[in-house]
Every structure is written in C-alpha cells, then in structure tokens.
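[Q] Does anyone have a clean structure-token version of this?
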Amino acid sequence: MTNMTATPRKRGRPAKAAGDFRETREILCRAGVAALTEKGFSATGLDEILKSVGVPKGSFYHFFASKEAFGSELITLYARYFVRKIDRFLLDESLTPLQRIEAFCEDAERGMQRFDFHRGCLVGNLGQEMGALPESFRAQLTDVLLDWQARFERCLEQAKAVGEIAQDADSARLAAFFWIGWEGAVLRAKLERTGEPLRVFAQLFLMSLRS
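[A] Here you go.
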C-alpha cells in the first residue's frame, strides 16, 4: 500500500550543504518506509537500511537520536503520504461516495501488486508487532487509524445524503469496521501474494451497504 521507494546513493560522507543534508534524510526515510512496509520494525535492522542506500551510520545519528525516533518519523511520513492517497479518492466529486471507496480499494490492490504483494501497510505491520515495539508507538498508530477512519466516516455520511446507503446507517461504526477488516485483508493479501482477499472484503463491504 505504498509507492514510496528508496533511491540508493553513493557511499562516503554526505555533503555538508543544507540541501544535501535534507536529501540524505529523505533517502533514509524512503528506505525506512519501504523496509517497514515489507518486513516490519523488529525485523528491520538499521545496518540493512543504511547499506541499501549507502549512508554511513554516523550520518544516521546526525538526523535521528535512535531507531525509535526514526520509527516515529516513518509513521508520521507514511500517515501523511497515505492521507493524500485517501483524499485523492474520497474527495473526488466526479464519483459517488461509494464509488470513491471502491476506487480507493482498487488502487490499493494495484499498489500492492506493483510490489508483488511483498509490501503491505506500515501502520498495519507495526500494529501486529506492537508487543515488541516501543510503547510510544501505540498512541501514534492509533491516532493514524482514527484519522483514516474519520475520513471514511465523512464519505459514508455523504453516501447517506445522496441516498446510496440507509439513513439509519451508523457511519462511524461502519468506518471502523472497514479499517478493521481492510487491514486484515491487506495482511492476507501479503501472505498469499494475491489481491483476492482485498477484492473479497471490498465487494462484501460495499454490497452490504448497497443492500
């Protein structure tokens, strides 16, 4: 569920210009997001990330005090990136509200397929290993999921307004149900290396709303 990719850089000490420092930090973050969407936090070593982009360990600690601080930054960056993706679909007024959700699901499947289903959702991956993660991540991950949920709730309220779903539908609970089920579908798609779990969940979710 991510198209953020890392670009390897040449080995050696990073240039001292401010622009080069920013570039090095961005390269590290892109590599970190890619690693966490594929392997999670515990299974990803700093040395592995640094080697993949040719950044020395000393440069890493110029930007981040610890792996925990790095992980927190990656959650923030991924959440910011994914909100743009959600809004691109849920705010598309050329589609009806339920068509927007359907388009989001279809795009997510294409995104996973682009990486042969090796990458999933960074937030979902970290949520599954929360018992082994810094406790500081718990509230951060929860807040991200609640934000995504709120955006879907607003879309479902719009679906009620145009008569796509029943007027007594509980948009908040339906939005919560979507993200609980969707993260499970992403996990299953990654496990089985196929988009079928995503399609099954999306089709049944939308069918239940339209009925």
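[Q] Thanks! Anything notable?
[A] The chain has a mean pLDDT of 91.
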